[in-house]
């Protein structure tokens, strides 16, 4: 190829609209856009002459050169396009004074200069994000940037965290047009003007509520059209009992995490539109139980409820003589997603009364089996059932048909499986049994794990995903089970001490010595293996090689993907590289992010 490379001419010959489409992919990366403009005169003229490419600016306050100069460069080229502005502040230096004082002075000067420039363009702000800004710098920035922001749709402010973590910050922006605004704040609580608060639809707060109760209530009162509220108290904290009623007729999503005494805010909020309620990391008390029941009764519009309390109950949270439980049924007519997890005992009387005629997904933890049975029986449209460490039942229960069920997940005791039948539409089955010292039998039962598994598979001929964790099952038993799963596409085996390479050989193409015998799991396309001590990298490699060869030669098998985390004794890096070349993931250690992603993803 000569110096006047034809490939360069090909690029130059691309139509301008194609080039602009390519450049737009770099518009969020300021440095890449500048580099592209230096390639040739044509590209430079096209980039600098297209204002829409300059509407997104990311300003690192520690980068070389004054940020206001870089911002002016962008603003000159953005024309009249709405602006997306991101301002990134650095971590403060750990050195003692005077280096820290000097760094703060530099940041203060740069913040002031930048604010004086940006304030002249507030009418074009569409998105403003300020990250890791010291509170003094933020106050200075907002003191300069006051006025109308008619196009602002997203506001994200994260101040530097300190022990207080909940500064009240007045946001001096006005809004006279019908624009919906989404806001996010960390370590501070905003105070909006009345015109701006009317336009706010979403608030996401990360705060320390011990210092913020009154500011939080003031905020809610200035946002009457709020649709989504997410409060996260990262250090925990208490709201206290002094909470005043707040009516939000448009509020549809309420999420509160970390506040220990949330009954006050639950009692204060009323919305005829509330659909989703997510409460996490709070403490149970008799008042909290009453408040939770009250919010269910006041908001029949609820469709999605998730409850996860802390694992301990504070002393004195419940009276020595609790009030007699109500026996009146509580019908949640619109509920489609219902989850009660972690420390559920205070809710058992309420759960006993709940009827869920339209629920589709049910997630229950540490609840007596008879209560679970009643809830499932009242749910004729159930598609997903997840059960964790169910409590014992005092009497025999009738059989429980669930013909609509497509996903079943059970951890802990498997006794509840004895009552389930008629599940012809089951597509995904995940079992993680508790085991005794011999690692053979279920706690509280004399039935081996394989009996429960065979019972489920006998009713689930359409099963497409199967996950086994901590299960004592032999190679021969799992091979026998696999013969009844012609539709299986995804198989996960996690910490099963008796599964070995023998099972993988049974799945390998060409393993059977009987002519014409059907290949096991012919539709298997994904396999996930974690910490199975008798499975080696060589065994996995033989399985993948045989399946890949058939997929390439005859198209009668599907090339497999997935992940394998080996026990150290059976780990061979040479084989691992070969496995990776066939499309599988082999993490280098069990803390790898890929392990978490694959263990937590659904089968189907």
UniProtKB/TrEMBL annotation:
Residues 12-59 form the F-box domain. One of its GO terms (biological process) is SCF-dependent proteasomal ubiquitin-dependent protein catabolic process. InterPro entries: F-box-like_dom_sf (IPR036047), F-box_dom (IPR001810), LRR_dom_sf (IPR032675). GO terms for cellular component: SCF ubiquitin ligase complex. PANTHER family: PARTNER OF PAIRED, ISOFORM B-RELATED. This is F-box domain-containing protein. It comes from Botryobasidium botryosum (strain FD-172 SS1).
């Amino acid at each position: 190829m000569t110096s006047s490379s034809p490939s360069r001419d090909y690029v130059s010959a691309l139509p301008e609209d194609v080039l602009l489409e390519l450049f737009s992919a770099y518009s969020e990366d300021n440095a890449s856009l500048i580099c592209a403009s230096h390639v040739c005169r044509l590209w430079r003229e096209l980039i600098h002459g297209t204002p829409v490419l300059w509407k997104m600016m990311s300003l690192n306050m520690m980068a070389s050169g004054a940020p206001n100069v870089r911002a002016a460069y962008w603003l000159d080229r953005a024309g009249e396009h709405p602006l997306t502005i991101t301002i990134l502040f650095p971590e403060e230096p750990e050195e003692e004074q005077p280096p820290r004082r000097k760094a703060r002075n530099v940041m203060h000067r740069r913040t002031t200069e930048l604010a004086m420039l940006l304030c002249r363009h507030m009418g074009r702000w569409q998105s403003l994000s300020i990250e890791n800004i010291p509170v003094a710098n933020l106050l200075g920035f907002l003191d300069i940037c006051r006025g109308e922001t008619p196009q602002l749709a997203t506001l994200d402010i994260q101040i530097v965290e300190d022990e207080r973590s909940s500064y009240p910050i007045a946001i001096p922006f006005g809004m006279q047009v019908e624009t919906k605004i989404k806001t996010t704040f960390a370590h501070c609580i905003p105070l909006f003007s009345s015109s701006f608060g009317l336009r706010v639809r979403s608030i996401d707060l990360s705060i320390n509520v011990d210092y913020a109760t009154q500011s939080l209530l003031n905020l809610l009162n200035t946002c009457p059209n709020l649709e989504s509220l997410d409060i996260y108290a990262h250090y925990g904290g208490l709201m206290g009992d002094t909470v005043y009623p707040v009516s939000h007729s448009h509020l549809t999503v309420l999420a509160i995490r970390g506040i220990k005494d949330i009954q006050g805010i639950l009692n204060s909020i009323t919305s005829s539109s509330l659909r989703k309620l997510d409460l996490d990391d709070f403490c149970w008390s008799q008042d909290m139980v009453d408040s939770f029941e009250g919010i269910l009764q006041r908001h029949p519009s609820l469709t999605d409820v998730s409850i996860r309390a802390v694992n301990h109950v504070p002393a004195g949270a419940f009276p020595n003589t609790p009030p007699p439980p109500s026996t009146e049924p509580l019908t949640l007519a619109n509920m489609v997603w219902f989850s009660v997890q972690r420390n559920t005992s205070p809710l058992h009387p309420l759960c006993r009364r709940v009827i869920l005629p339209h629920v589709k997904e049910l997630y229950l933890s540490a609840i007596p089996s008879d209560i679970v049975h009643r809830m499932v029986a009242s749910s004729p449209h159930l598609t997903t059932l997840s059960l964790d460490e169910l409590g014992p039942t005092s009497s025999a229960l009738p059989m429980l048909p669930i013909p609509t069920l497509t996903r079943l997940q059970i951890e802990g005791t498997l006794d509840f499986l004895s009552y389930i039948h008629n599940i012809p539409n089951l597509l995904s089955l995940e079992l993680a049994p508790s085991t005794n010292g011999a690692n053979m039998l279920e706690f509280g039962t004399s039935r081996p794990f394989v009996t429960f598994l065979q019972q489920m598979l006998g009713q689930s001929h359409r099963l497409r995903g199967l996950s086994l964790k901590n299960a004592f099952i032999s190679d021969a038993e799992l091979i026998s089970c696999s013969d009844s799963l012609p539709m299986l596409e995804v198989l996960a085996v996690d910490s099963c001490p008796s599964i070995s390479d023998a099972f993988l050989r049974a799945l390998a193409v060409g393993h059977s010595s009987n002519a014409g015998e059907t290949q096991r799991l012919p539709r298997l396309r994904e396999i996930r293996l974690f910490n199975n001590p008798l499975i080696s990298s060589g065994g996995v490699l033989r399985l993948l090689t045989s399946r890949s060869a058939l997929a390439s030669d005859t198209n009668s098998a599907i090339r497999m993907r997935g992940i394998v985390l080996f026990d150290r004794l059976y780990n061979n890096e040479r084989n691992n590289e070969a496995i990776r070349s066939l499309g599988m993931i082999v993490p280098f250690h069990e803390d790898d992010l890929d392990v978490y992603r694959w263990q937590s993803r659904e089968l189907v």
